[in-house]
TrEMBL record:
Alphabetized InterPro entries for the sequence: DUF983
Species of the source: Emcibacter nanhaiensis
Keywords: Membrane, Transmembrane, Transmembrane helix
Domain of life: Bacteria
Transmembrane stretches, start-end: 57-77, 83-102
Protein name: DUF983 domain-containing protein
Transmembrane in keyword set: yes
Amino acid sequence: MTDPFLHTPVSPLKAGLGCKCPRCGEGRLFTGYLTLPERCPNCGLDYSPFDSADGPAVFIILILGFFIVALALLVEVKFSPPLWVHIVLWAPLTIIGSLAMLRPFKALMIALQYHFKAEEGKTD
C-alpha cells in the first residue's frame, strides 16, 4: 500500500488555486462545484482523509469582508449615496465574490493539508 502523503514537487498554492490534485497537479480536485471524488482520476490519490471543513469560509469572510467594508466606507464618504445604492452595490458583489472564492480556497486548504501531512487527531 502506498503512503497517501508522499512528498510532492507540486506547489500547494499552484495545485490549490488551480483546483488540481495536490499530489500530481494534473487531476481535477472536484467533480461538481465543491464535491470531492473518492480518488484522483490521474494518480489515484485517496481524497477521503482530506476535509477543509469551514476554514475556507472563515478566510473568505475575513478577506472579502475587509475589502467590501473598505469600499463601502469609501463610497459613503466620497458620494454619500442613499441606502438602496449600497444594497444594490455590495450585496451582489459580496455574494458573487464569496462564490467565486470558495472553490479555490477549499482546494488550497486541501492542498495544504496534503503538503503538511495534516491528519485528524488520534488517541492511543
